[in-house]
Input
Amino acid sequence: MLKEKAGTVAGLIWNALNGTEGLTAKQIKKATKLVDKDFYLGLGWLLREEKVSTKEVENDLFIALK
Output
């Protein structure tokens, strides 16, 4: 069940990022209405599959599709 949730949340994050140059974690959480634990679950899925890149910008996590 957790694996299905991770995939679903990863899809929400991917959709929020699609068509952008990238967004901060705060922007993605606001756009998707995800709580922290779900956001990081989905982000972990995308990182594991090498679908996104991350970097720290002004004390916030910046995420972009590869």
Remarks:
- Strands lie at 23-24, 52-57, 60-65.
- The chain has one domain: 2-65.
- The mean pLDDT is 96.
- Helices lie at 2-17, 25-32, 36-48.
